[in-house]
From TrEMBL:
Keywords for the protein's UniProt record, in alphabetical order: Endoplasmic reticulum, Lipid droplet, Membrane, Transmembrane, Transmembrane helix
Statement: the UniProt record of this protein carries the keyword Hydrolase: no
Membrane topology listed for this record: Peripheral membrane protein
Keyword Iron-sulfur (UniProt): no
Gene Ontology MF term list: ubiquitin binding
Family matches, as Pfam families: CUE
Homology family: Belongs to the AUP1 family.
Name of the featured protein: Lipid droplet-regulating VLDL assembly factor AUP1
Cell location: Endoplasmic reticulum membrane; Lipid droplet
Amino acid sequence: MEPPPSPGPERLFDSHRLPGDGFLLLALLLYAPVGFCLLVLRVFLGIHVFLVSCALPDSVLRRFVVRTMCAVLGLVARQEDSGLRDHRVRVLISNHVTPFDHNIVNLLTSCSTPLLNSPPSFVCWSRGFMEMDGRGELVESLKRFCASTRLPPTPLLLFPEEEATNGREGLLRFSSWPFSIQDVVQPLTLRVQRPLVSVTVSDASWVSELLWSLFVPFTVYQVRWLRPVHRQLGEGSEEFSLRVQQLVAKELGQTGTQLTPADKAEHMKRQRHPRLRPQSAQSFPPSPGPSPDVQLATLAQRVKEVLPHVPLGVIQRDLGMRKGRLTTGCVDLTITNLLEGAVTFMPEDISERTQALPTASTPKAFDACLMMMTSQAL
């Protein structure tokens, strides 16, 4: 099963937060004073939300209270087809849009999400992630977690993309390790909408994303539950992940791509150094050659060495500069014009050694000059 042609990384990741449309930019400037006031107010309210979420045990009441308080912060969580949620499934699979996707889903159903590529810390715990050990033992640890008999069972919420996209064009390639934990997963789709600014920026930190979430009027997270998907007989983890990726992409109206987090990192590197290689190729064309003025002076000096009694201005005039291009472009032709009298001039006074040179209108003078040119070339 091969995925259809996919968009490039420039369409999956936003590099600019502010809108490019002039009307939206003007609206953002007018809203900015209100946004800053909301930001300050919501920072203090957010501290209370954090304390309440830590104080209350995981329950329906806690999720309802925290969800209501998050709506005051401008983080609105909605869900569709909640009846399809199968509480027996221990692995939930979702696309990834913002650094707070797991927090939003946790407002709708109890779940746990491990933080990849990060050691256990207070920041990890305060953001609502599971504290796991090294990445090498991650899959085995998650298998043991799902196999535990604790009641009520807490499902895992995993993001196989491993990196967030803008949520508009396509999905990153799903990693296969989340599909090696159990033989049945329940996918869900996540759509995020926000006025005035981009939902997420590729190189922004989670702190920056949080501040922008508190600044804008609201951010709507729309969760839609899909039916559980079972592993087919003889199906490997790679095929299983690809099948679920295409299912999620179809529900979102997007494309499942083969891009990976490594492609995102390369894209971000190019964003920091925009068009570095193309500019180098365009800025340094091969063998540009000397400028016309330098070329004219060089050619005139060569003629002057052969015919020292000819004024330099006459030589340059014959070689000529007409709108940046040479009229003859040839030293031999200019010398021929001067020796044959095609160009009239008043001879300059030269030293006694050069005064013995015949006048420039006889065949002997022409032969002598040719001999001088040949000797100089040798």
